[in-house]
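Pilot study result, target chain (837 residues):
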Amino acid sequence: MGEVYRAYDTRLRRNVALKVLPATFTNDPERLRRFEQEARAVAALNHPNILSVYDVGKEGDVHYLVSELLEGSTLREQIPATGMGVRKATELAVQLANGLAAAHDQNVVHRDLKPENIFVTKNGHVKILDFGLAKLRRVEAHTETVDGISLAETNAGQVLGTVGYMSPEQVKGEPADHRSDIFSFGSILYEMLTGQRAFKKNTGAETMTAILNEEPADFSMKSGAIAPALERIVRHCLEKVPGKRFQSAHDIAFDLESMSGISSTSGTAAAAVKSTSRKWMVPAAVAGVVLLGAGLGLGAWLRPKEEATHVKLHRITFRRGTIWAARFTPEGNLVYAASWEGNPVDIHLAQKGNTESRPLGLPSAQLLAVSKGGDLAITVGPKPAEGFTLIGMLAKSPLGGGAPRELLDKVEFADWGPDGNSLAVVRRVSGKVRLEYPLGKVLYEPAGWISHPRISPDGKLLAFLDHPFENDDTGFVVVIDQEGKRTTLTRQYVSAQGLVWNEPTNEIWYTATTSGSNRELWAVSLDKRERLVYPGTGTLTVYDIAKDGRVLFTRDDLRGGIYGLAPGETKERELSWHDYTGGRDLSDDGRIVSFDETGEAGGATGGMYVRRTNGDAAVKLGDGLTPTLSGDGKKVLAMVPNSAGKRVLMEFPTGAGESRTVPTGDVQALGGYFFPDGQHILVYGNAAGDHGSRLWVFDGKGGTPRAISPEGSGFRTRTCISPDGTKVVGVDPEGNLTIYPVDGGEAKPVPGIVEGDRCVRWTEDGKSLLVTQRDVPNVVYMVDLASKQRKEFKRVAMPDVAGLQDYGAPLFSKDLKSYVYGYSRATSDLYVADGLK
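Predicted structure:
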């Protein structure tokens, strides 16, 4: 396919691979157009298990493709004649399946998957190569055979190598979709495990006949046992009819991860495998999961404590929506709060051993806890709070039915003490988060927020997840005693949600991940020993452990995205890129949106992008978070990790040019925003000795910063800076919208504001302010700052509301005619697990 050079990208300062395509592949304009179109589609994937394509272009008569530079070897070179060990093969196959799933989610199909196109780096990471190049290769054929592979292109051994991984539909010349890749995946996994190709005959024609009519040899022919469940996965991939195969690579990854670590000699688990994946609160409906055991049981094998443990999963819910919380009742039944098909949150009861649920008749109520006497702690009329929680009126309600008794307002989480009467709560008072136990006694006020508090079985300690950043679920496990002494038990995770005491093991079990969004089940002892309990797959959130050892958790599919209306258009367009797209800013003319990716595709560092609102492909500017634009859309400010692992404020051009670090002196920046002049910068952050963040004004080229707000104040977006640059609408320490003069004058509350308003932007004449609340659908109001008159300006709503959590405050162009708005969606399935230890 051409010559490959090691090269250096002088703009982004990184080594890359530069592939120069030969003239025989580029002389045909139509073929070249198709190749470039496919290359751009692949460049959009940006998944850790897919070779990253950075650029495709032309310089003179030379056509080139720029990708990341890899060191290692192909999978072909890694497969021994007798096959790999089961554990290694499974680990690599999980990564391969995850990469395929990411591509298929973007409607990109490989069509030429084989061991030569799979690369294994020196640190064991799988990278899928040459997505889309099969299309170009097929057009080049001089002597056509099946699927365009010809003797003119390659030698006989390579023909067999490619033909041997074709799907039956490719052999028959029929259209090949993502399920064709799944068949090729099965052929590759078979070879990894046995050392023999699934379909190999003396000639290409005989090999094709075998693909159509024969089955691979039994795994029993290999020395060393292969677990029957693993063989079933392989054979399910190799079904001749596409409709009978796995329908999703996600499902393959789910099943393989459920049994990761199977011993090559005994067919039982050897060890739990660390998942390498990242965010929100709640797992996707698993369409087409292969049931490896009877009924709803899924076979899983892992050994967290040097002993094989058989785990059974029982799926409880099957509707589409979000599960917010779940608990075991004293009798061992299940009670959970869910928002199904876009309806308000409601509480449901499921009997032990039964998948049928019934509502308890507590509409619009969020479940918080169940006492040993069967009383529910709930919140009535819950609404989204900042970050990842619901907030409402705390009430007590009998499990058997009856009117709730209201106790305390503005509560986010609660747990019953072992006496069944005392309560620990997390609530917001004057904009600040408080942990109280018992009610009224403040044990802790964090800088960020707190989730999932649970009281120890003896009532002496309170465990919770401490999240240092308000709009981020980065966090760690903390215990606190009744005197307020805190002890941090774990490292910091990039996503941590869900926590429960496990009395038999004297541990705290929690769900968290060190990268990506795929939270795993962990345990930590009070002497700070952490261990992985269950890797699972997807995003797990643990909620409870029954007396008989059953574990209750959800598997959540988390999505964040953006919709927008481009200038001159009348229909909104989906502008999301990967799995968790967060819109950050919109240029004044409404033509460029900046966003970041903080989900699985964003990894541990996050990725920052710009995209034209007309739907053109996004451009990745680099690793980092919260990219905000200059008004003309030519520059971006973003928080970027440096060599020491800390985030620093950097300026990037959205076109050609050099990036630079913005000096912020002693201020630790959390975000930066351009003033209308494009030179001065508003920084949200804190200086040494501060006990909360402030707003600071910087000369973009350096100089001494000036604080314009008190400690504990916040800020949302560039457009909350007035058009003349003299005033800033921020949030005061009590959570109220406040106007801060840039020259340091007296701060004043925004006139005409109601509780819960968020700043959207100033109107261009500086006389009115657009505000919104966290409602679904989202309503934007225009507030006249002189008369305090408030009127509805715009209402935004998506057609599909199942699992919808929140709308981000819309971002408007200067003329208020174009806009983008974000959304977050979480769909959940509830599971009970037997056998976790």
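One observation from the pilot: The first strand starts at residue 3 and ends at 9. A full batch analysis is planned for the follow-on phase.
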